[in-house]
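Amino acids appear as letters; backbone shape is given numerically. Here is one record.
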Amino acid sequence: MGIIKAVAGAVGGGLADSWLEVLEADNMGGTTLMASGVKVRKDKRSSNTKGTDNIVSNGSVIHVYPNQMMILTDNGRIVDYSAEEGTYEVYLSSAPSMFNGELKDAVKETFGRIKYGGTPSSAQHVFFINLQEIKGIKFGTVNPINYFDNFYNAELFLRCHGTYSIKITDPLKFYTECCPRNADRVEVNDIFTQYRSEFLMALQSAINKMAQDGKRISFAMSQTPDLAKHLNDSLDEEWHNTRGFEIVSVAITNLDYDEDSKKLINMRNKGAMLSDPTIREGFVQGSVAAGLEAAGSNTAGAGQAYMAMGMGMQNMGAVSGFSATNAQQMAAQQQAAPAAAANGWNCSCGTVNTGKFCSQCGSPKPAPAGSWKCSCGAENTGKFCSECGSPKPSADWTCQCGATNTGKFCSQCGAKRPE
Protein backbone atom coordinates (compact mmCIF):
# COMPACT_ATOMS: atom_id res chain seq x y z
CA MET A 1 0.00 0.00 0.00
CA GLY A 2 1.43 3.38 -0.95
CA ILE A 3 1.10 6.59 -2.93
CA ILE A 4 2.16 7.63 -6.41
CA LYS A 5 2.84 11.22 -7.37
CA ALA A 6 0.18 12.12 -9.87
CA VAL A 7 0.70 15.82 -10.51
CA ALA A 8 3.49 17.98 -9.16
CA GLY A 9 2.68 21.61 -8.47
CA ALA A 10 -0.92 21.28 -9.66
CA VAL A 11 -2.64 21.27 -6.30
CA GLY A 12 -6.11 22.71 -6.70
CA GLY A 13 -5.76 22.90 -10.50
CA GLY A 14 -8.15 21.63 -13.14
CA LEU A 15 -6.19 18.43 -13.68
CA ALA A 16 -6.48 17.51 -10.02
CA ASP A 17 -10.26 17.85 -10.29
CA SER A 18 -10.49 14.90 -12.65
CA TRP A 19 -10.32 12.30 -9.86
CA LEU A 20 -13.39 10.91 -8.15
CA GLU A 21 -12.45 11.31 -4.49
CA VAL A 22 -10.12 14.09 -3.26
CA LEU A 23 -8.78 14.61 0.26
CA GLU A 24 -6.77 17.42 1.80
CA ALA A 25 -5.92 18.71 5.26
CA ASP A 26 -8.68 19.95 7.50
CA ASN A 27 -8.38 23.60 8.51
CA MET A 28 -4.90 24.24 9.97
CA GLY A 29 -4.52 27.26 12.25
CA GLY A 30 -1.37 28.81 13.68
CA THR A 31 -1.46 26.50 16.70
CA THR A 32 -2.49 23.31 14.89
CA LEU A 33 0.09 20.54 15.11
CA MET A 34 -1.80 17.74 13.36
CA ALA A 35 -5.08 17.56 11.39
CA SER A 36 -6.82 14.69 9.66
CA GLY A 37 -7.53 14.63 5.93
CA VAL A 38 -11.07 15.47 4.87
CA LYS A 39 -12.84 14.89 1.57
CA VAL A 40 -13.30 17.97 -0.55
CA ARG A 41 -15.36 16.02 -3.08
CA LYS A 42 -17.15 12.66 -2.71
CA ASP A 43 -18.49 10.94 -5.83
CA LYS A 44 -21.00 8.06 -6.01
CA ARG A 45 -18.66 6.21 -8.37
CA SER A 46 -15.88 6.14 -5.75
CA SER A 47 -14.46 2.75 -4.81
CA ASN A 48 -15.09 3.62 -1.17
CA THR A 49 -18.32 1.62 -0.87
CA LYS A 50 -18.54 1.59 2.94
CA GLY A 51 -19.61 5.19 3.07
CA THR A 52 -17.45 6.19 6.06
CA ASP A 53 -16.21 9.77 5.91
CA ASN A 54 -12.48 10.35 5.55
CA ILE A 55 -11.62 6.68 4.92
CA VAL A 56 -9.04 6.55 2.14
CA SER A 57 -10.12 4.19 -0.60
CA ASN A 58 -8.12 2.76 -3.48
CA GLY A 59 -7.64 5.43 -6.16
CA SER A 60 -8.24 8.36 -3.83
CA VAL A 61 -6.32 11.55 -4.51
CA ILE A 62 -4.57 13.55 -1.80
CA HIS A 63 -3.56 17.21 -2.05
CA VAL A 64 -0.39 18.16 -0.16
CA TYR A 65 0.20 21.89 0.33
CA PRO A 66 3.41 23.74 1.28
CA ASN A 67 4.70 23.27 4.85
CA GLN A 68 2.63 20.11 5.29
CA MET A 69 3.60 16.48 5.65
CA MET A 70 0.97 13.94 4.64
CA ILE A 71 0.98 10.61 6.48
CA LEU A 72 -0.97 7.64 5.13
CA THR A 73 -1.93 5.13 7.82
CA ASP A 74 -3.48 1.68 7.92
CA ASN A 75 -5.12 0.81 11.24
CA GLY A 76 -3.01 3.49 12.91
CA ARG A 77 0.30 2.32 11.46
CA ILE A 78 2.18 4.54 9.00
CA VAL A 79 2.49 3.01 5.52
CA ASP A 80 3.67 5.97 3.43
CA TYR A 81 4.22 9.71 3.59
CA SER A 82 5.05 12.79 1.53
CA ALA A 83 6.51 16.16 2.47
CA GLU A 84 6.56 17.43 -1.11
CA GLU A 85 3.87 19.75 -2.44
CA GLY A 86 1.74 18.08 -5.07
CA THR A 87 -1.11 15.70 -5.85
CA TYR A 88 -0.85 11.99 -5.01
CA GLU A 89 -2.94 8.94 -5.87
CA VAL A 90 -3.38 6.05 -3.43
CA TYR A 91 -2.84 2.46 -4.58
CA LEU A 92 -3.38 -0.27 -2.04
CA SER A 93 -1.09 -2.59 -4.00
CA SER A 94 1.73 -0.04 -4.36
CA ALA A 95 4.95 -0.07 -2.36
CA PRO A 96 5.73 2.97 -0.18
CA SER A 97 7.16 5.88 -2.18
CA MET A 98 8.32 8.10 0.73
CA PHE A 99 8.63 11.56 -0.78
CA ASN A 100 11.01 13.18 1.68
CA GLY A 101 10.93 16.80 0.52
CA GLU A 102 13.30 19.06 2.47
CA LEU A 103 13.24 16.86 5.56
CA LYS A 104 16.43 15.13 6.61
CA ASP A 105 17.20 11.47 5.94
CA ALA A 106 16.52 10.79 9.62
CA VAL A 107 12.81 10.76 8.71
CA LYS A 108 13.38 7.74 6.45
CA GLU A 109 15.21 6.05 9.29
CA THR A 110 12.21 6.68 11.54
CA PHE A 111 9.90 5.21 8.89
CA GLY A 112 12.08 2.09 8.75
CA ARG A 113 11.41 1.49 12.45
CA ILE A 114 7.64 2.07 12.46
CA LYS A 115 6.43 1.01 8.99
CA TYR A 116 3.48 -1.35 8.59
CA GLY A 117 4.30 -4.72 7.10
CA GLY A 118 0.95 -6.50 6.96
CA THR A 119 -1.83 -6.80 4.39
CA PRO A 120 -3.77 -3.56 3.85
CA SER A 121 -7.03 -3.48 5.78
CA SER A 122 -10.16 -1.42 5.27
CA ALA A 123 -9.23 1.40 7.67
CA GLN A 124 -6.85 3.65 5.81
CA HIS A 125 -6.66 7.27 6.96
CA VAL A 126 -4.59 10.29 6.03
CA PHE A 127 -3.19 12.86 8.46
CA PHE A 128 -1.30 16.10 7.94
CA ILE A 129 1.52 17.41 10.17
CA ASN A 130 2.14 21.17 10.29
CA LEU A 131 5.78 21.89 9.36
CA GLN A 132 5.54 25.63 9.93
CA GLU A 133 7.08 27.30 12.98
CA ILE A 134 4.47 27.15 15.75
CA LYS A 135 4.69 30.50 17.52
CA GLY A 136 3.33 32.13 20.64
CA ILE A 137 3.51 29.23 23.11
CA LYS A 138 3.27 31.02 26.46
CA PHE A 139 5.28 30.18 29.55
CA GLY A 140 5.61 31.63 33.04
CA THR A 141 7.35 30.64 36.25
CA VAL A 142 5.01 29.68 39.08
CA ASN A 143 7.76 29.98 41.69
CA PRO A 144 10.72 32.41 41.49
CA ILE A 145 13.93 31.03 39.98
CA ASN A 146 17.08 31.38 42.07
CA TYR A 147 20.01 33.24 40.50
CA PHE A 148 23.36 33.76 42.20
CA ASP A 149 24.67 37.15 41.05
CA ASN A 150 28.43 37.60 41.45
CA PHE A 151 28.08 41.38 41.26
CA TYR A 152 25.85 41.50 44.32
CA ASN A 153 27.44 38.36 45.79
CA ALA A 154 23.96 37.22 46.76
CA GLU A 155 21.32 34.65 45.87
CA LEU A 156 18.53 36.52 44.12
CA PHE A 157 15.19 35.30 42.78
CA LEU A 158 13.35 36.31 39.64
CA ARG A 159 10.10 35.61 37.83
CA CYS A 160 10.09 35.06 34.09
CA HIS A 161 7.29 35.18 31.51
CA GLY A 162 7.32 35.07 27.74
CA THR A 163 6.68 32.95 24.66
CA TYR A 164 8.62 30.45 22.63
CA SER A 165 8.21 28.73 19.27
CA ILE A 166 8.79 25.17 18.11
CA LYS A 167 9.16 23.40 14.79
CA ILE A 168 8.38 19.76 14.04
CA THR A 169 11.58 18.35 12.55
CA ASP A 170 10.69 14.63 12.49
CA PRO A 171 6.95 14.39 11.72
CA LEU A 172 6.82 10.59 11.84
CA LYS A 173 8.34 10.50 15.30
CA PHE A 174 6.04 13.31 16.41
CA TYR A 175 2.97 11.43 15.14
CA THR A 176 3.87 8.16 16.84
CA GLU A 177 5.11 9.62 20.14
CA CYS A 178 3.03 12.75 20.74
CA CYS A 179 -0.32 12.51 18.96
CA PRO A 180 -3.09 10.77 20.92
CA ARG A 181 -4.52 7.69 19.25
CA ASN A 182 -7.79 8.17 17.35
CA ALA A 183 -7.38 11.96 17.46
CA ASP A 184 -8.51 13.83 14.35
CA ARG A 185 -6.81 17.07 15.40
CA VAL A 186 -4.04 18.07 17.81
CA GLU A 187 -3.58 21.65 18.98
CA VAL A 188 -0.68 23.04 21.03
CA ASN A 189 -2.71 23.25 24.25
CA ASP A 190 -3.83 19.63 23.87
CA ILE A 191 -0.39 18.18 24.58
CA PHE A 192 1.87 21.00 25.81
CA THR A 193 0.76 21.00 29.43
CA GLN A 194 3.34 18.31 30.14
CA TYR A 195 5.94 19.81 27.83
CA ARG A 196 5.49 23.25 29.39
CA SER A 197 6.60 21.82 32.74
CA GLU A 198 9.65 20.32 31.09
CA PHE A 199 10.33 23.66 29.40
CA LEU A 200 10.26 25.49 32.74
CA MET A 201 12.70 22.98 34.22
CA ALA A 202 15.02 23.57 31.26
CA LEU A 203 14.51 27.33 31.64
CA GLN A 204 15.70 27.19 35.25
CA SER A 205 18.71 25.15 34.16
CA ALA A 206 19.47 27.69 31.41
CA ILE A 207 19.18 30.67 33.77
CA ASN A 208 21.43 28.92 36.30
CA LYS A 209 23.93 28.36 33.46
CA MET A 210 23.91 32.11 32.83
CA ALA A 211 24.68 32.66 36.52
CA GLN A 212 27.58 30.20 36.31
CA ASP A 213 28.91 32.13 33.31
CA GLY A 214 29.05 35.24 35.52
CA LYS A 215 26.40 37.29 33.71
CA ARG A 216 24.70 39.95 35.83
CA ILE A 217 21.03 39.37 36.51
CA SER A 218 20.18 42.83 35.19
CA PHE A 219 21.61 41.84 31.78
CA ALA A 220 19.40 38.75 31.44
CA MET A 221 16.92 40.49 29.10
CA SER A 222 19.72 41.05 26.57
CA GLN A 223 20.83 37.42 26.74
CA THR A 224 17.81 35.81 25.04
CA PRO A 225 19.89 34.34 22.14
CA ASP A 226 22.17 32.62 24.66
CA LEU A 227 19.10 31.59 26.65
CA ALA A 228 17.56 29.94 23.58
CA LYS A 229 20.84 28.12 22.93
CA HIS A 230 20.97 26.85 26.51
CA LEU A 231 17.37 25.68 26.24
CA ASN A 232 18.09 23.86 22.99
CA ASP A 233 21.06 22.16 24.62
CA SER A 234 18.95 21.16 27.62
CA LEU A 235 15.97 19.88 25.63
CA ASP A 236 17.65 18.54 22.50
CA GLU A 237 17.73 14.88 23.49
CA GLU A 238 14.37 14.93 25.25
CA TRP A 239 12.38 16.78 22.61
CA HIS A 240 14.16 16.46 19.27
CA ASN A 241 15.56 12.95 19.53
CA THR A 242 12.56 11.33 21.21
CA ARG A 243 9.57 13.46 20.16
CA GLY A 244 10.48 14.97 16.83
CA PHE A 245 10.30 18.72 17.53
CA GLU A 246 12.70 21.37 18.79
CA ILE A 247 12.76 24.95 20.05
CA VAL A 248 13.30 27.65 17.43
CA SER A 249 13.25 30.86 19.48
CA VAL A 250 12.53 32.18 22.96
CA ALA A 251 11.13 35.66 23.69
CA ILE A 252 11.18 36.92 27.28
CA THR A 253 8.47 39.55 27.70
CA ASN A 254 8.85 40.09 31.45
CA LEU A 255 11.75 39.42 33.79
CA ASP A 256 11.37 40.78 37.29
CA TYR A 257 12.80 40.22 40.76
CA ASP A 258 10.68 39.03 43.64
CA GLU A 259 10.03 41.52 46.46
CA ASP A 260 12.80 40.26 48.76
CA SER A 261 15.35 40.49 45.95
CA LYS A 262 14.23 44.05 45.14
CA LYS A 263 14.71 45.10 48.76
CA LEU A 264 18.15 43.48 48.89
CA ILE A 265 19.28 45.13 45.63
CA ASN A 266 18.00 48.54 46.73
CA MET A 267 19.75 48.17 50.08
CA ARG A 268 23.05 47.19 48.43
CA ASN A 269 22.82 50.00 45.89
CA LYS A 270 22.02 52.55 48.55
CA GLY A 271 24.87 51.29 50.72
CA ALA A 272 27.28 51.49 47.76
CA MET A 273 26.27 55.10 47.10
CA LEU A 274 26.51 56.14 50.75
CA SER A 275 30.02 54.67 50.97
CA ASP A 276 31.09 57.75 48.97
CA PRO A 277 31.61 60.54 51.56
CA THR A 278 30.64 63.23 49.03
CA ILE A 279 27.24 61.62 48.41
CA ARG A 280 26.86 60.86 52.10
CA GLU A 281 27.47 64.49 53.05
CA GLY A 282 24.86 65.65 50.56
CA PHE A 283 22.40 63.14 52.04
CA VAL A 284 23.12 64.43 55.58
CA GLN A 285 22.69 68.08 54.63
CA GLY A 286 19.51 67.34 52.69
CA SER A 287 18.05 65.40 55.63
CA VAL A 288 18.88 68.26 58.03
CA ALA A 289 17.23 70.83 55.76
CA ALA A 290 14.14 68.65 55.38
CA GLY A 291 13.96 68.18 59.16
CA LEU A 292 14.18 71.90 59.87
CA GLU A 293 11.54 72.61 57.24
CA ALA A 294 9.22 70.06 58.82
CA ALA A 295 9.85 71.51 62.29
CA GLY A 296 9.17 75.06 61.10
CA SER A 297 5.85 74.05 59.59
CA ASN A 298 4.50 72.75 62.90
CA THR A 299 0.72 73.19 62.86
CA ALA A 300 0.56 73.62 66.66
CA GLY A 301 1.39 77.32 66.35
CA ALA A 302 4.39 79.59 66.06
CA GLY A 303 5.61 78.91 69.62
CA GLN A 304 5.68 75.18 69.07
CA ALA A 305 7.34 75.71 65.71
CA TYR A 306 10.14 77.82 67.25
CA MET A 307 10.57 75.22 70.02
CA ALA A 308 10.84 72.40 67.48
CA MET A 309 13.38 74.36 65.47
CA GLY A 310 15.36 75.08 68.63
CA MET A 311 15.49 71.39 69.52
CA GLY A 312 16.59 70.69 65.97
CA MET A 313 19.38 73.24 66.26
CA GLN A 314 20.55 71.64 69.52
CA ASN A 315 21.02 68.39 67.65
CA MET A 316 23.17 70.11 65.07
CA GLY A 317 26.20 69.18 67.14
CA ALA A 318 25.74 65.53 66.26
CA VAL A 319 25.16 66.46 62.63
CA SER A 320 28.35 68.51 62.64
CA GLY A 321 30.17 65.40 63.84
CA PHE A 322 28.83 63.46 60.86
CA SER A 323 29.92 66.22 58.50
CA ALA A 324 33.36 66.36 60.08
CA THR A 325 33.79 62.63 59.50
CA ASN A 326 32.69 63.03 55.91
CA ALA A 327 35.11 65.93 55.43
CA GLN A 328 37.99 63.84 56.78
CA GLN A 329 37.22 61.01 54.40
CA MET A 330 36.90 63.38 51.44
CA ALA A 331 40.27 64.92 52.32
CA ALA A 332 41.78 61.44 52.54
CA GLN A 333 40.44 60.68 49.06
CA GLN A 334 41.99 63.85 47.70
CA GLN A 335 45.32 62.95 49.26
CA ALA A 336 45.11 59.43 47.88
CA ALA A 337 44.57 60.73 44.34
CA PRO A 338 48.18 62.01 43.87
CA ALA A 339 49.46 58.74 45.32
CA ALA A 340 47.42 56.83 42.77
CA ALA A 341 48.76 59.10 40.07
CA ALA A 342 52.30 58.44 41.30
CA ASN A 343 51.78 54.70 40.91
CA GLY A 344 50.10 55.16 37.55
CA TRP A 345 50.07 57.97 34.99
CA ASN A 346 47.81 60.90 34.27
CA CYS A 347 46.24 61.11 30.82
CA SER A 348 45.62 64.47 29.17
CA CYS A 349 41.87 63.85 29.66
CA GLY A 350 42.42 63.77 33.46
CA THR A 351 42.04 60.01 33.99
CA VAL A 352 44.54 58.15 36.21
CA ASN A 353 45.66 54.89 34.59
CA THR A 354 48.00 51.98 35.28
CA GLY A 355 47.95 50.25 31.88
CA LYS A 356 49.55 51.17 28.58
CA PHE A 357 46.43 52.94 27.31
CA CYS A 358 43.96 55.35 28.91
CA SER A 359 40.82 53.56 30.10
CA GLN A 360 38.72 56.64 29.29
CA CYS A 361 39.91 57.95 25.90
CA GLY A 362 42.31 55.21 24.73
CA SER A 363 45.38 57.47 24.42
CA PRO A 364 48.74 55.64 24.76
CA LYS A 365 50.82 56.06 27.88
CA PRO A 366 53.39 58.83 27.29
CA ALA A 367 57.07 57.89 27.40
CA PRO A 368 58.77 58.88 30.70
CA ALA A 369 61.18 61.81 30.71
CA GLY A 370 64.76 60.85 29.79
CA SER A 371 63.71 57.58 28.16
CA TRP A 372 65.47 56.18 25.10
CA LYS A 373 64.49 53.61 22.53
CA CYS A 374 66.79 50.68 21.89
CA SER A 375 67.39 49.28 18.41
CA CYS A 376 65.34 46.22 19.50
CA GLY A 377 62.31 48.49 20.02
CA ALA A 378 62.20 48.49 23.85
CA GLU A 379 61.72 51.77 25.78
CA ASN A 380 64.27 52.26 28.57
CA THR A 381 65.32 54.78 31.20
CA GLY A 382 68.55 53.18 32.48
CA LYS A 383 71.99 52.81 30.94
CA PHE A 384 71.25 49.41 29.42
CA CYS A 385 68.30 47.98 27.54
CA SER A 386 66.03 45.91 29.79
CA GLU A 387 65.12 43.68 26.84
CA CYS A 388 68.40 42.88 25.04
CA GLY A 389 71.07 44.37 27.32
CA SER A 390 72.49 46.80 24.75
CA PRO A 391 74.09 49.91 26.27
CA LYS A 392 72.41 53.27 25.98
CA PRO A 393 73.87 55.11 22.97
CA SER A 394 76.06 58.09 23.78
CA ALA A 395 74.34 61.42 23.60
CA ASP A 396 77.30 62.94 21.71
CA TRP A 397 78.69 61.63 18.47
CA THR A 398 81.40 62.78 16.14
CA CYS A 399 80.71 63.19 12.46
CA GLN A 400 83.26 62.28 9.75
CA CYS A 401 83.66 65.97 9.12
CA GLY A 402 84.94 66.35 12.66
CA ALA A 403 81.92 68.11 14.16
CA THR A 404 80.50 66.95 17.52
CA ASN A 405 76.74 66.55 17.58
CA THR A 406 73.86 65.47 19.85
CA GLY A 407 71.02 65.17 17.34
CA LYS A 408 70.35 62.66 14.58
CA PHE A 409 72.05 64.77 11.91
CA CYS A 410 75.37 66.60 11.81
CA SER A 411 75.00 70.29 12.47
CA GLN A 412 77.98 70.97 10.19
CA CYS A 413 77.46 68.84 7.07
CA GLY A 414 74.02 67.35 7.59
CA ALA A 415 75.20 63.70 7.61
CA LYS A 416 72.96 61.23 9.50
CA ARG A 417 74.16 59.88 12.80
CA PRO A 418 75.46 56.33 12.34
CA GLU A 419 73.45 53.60 14.05
Observations:
- Helices lie at 106-114, 171-178, 188-212, 224-243, 259-274, 277-296, 302-314, 316-343.
- The chain is about 35% helix and 25% strand.
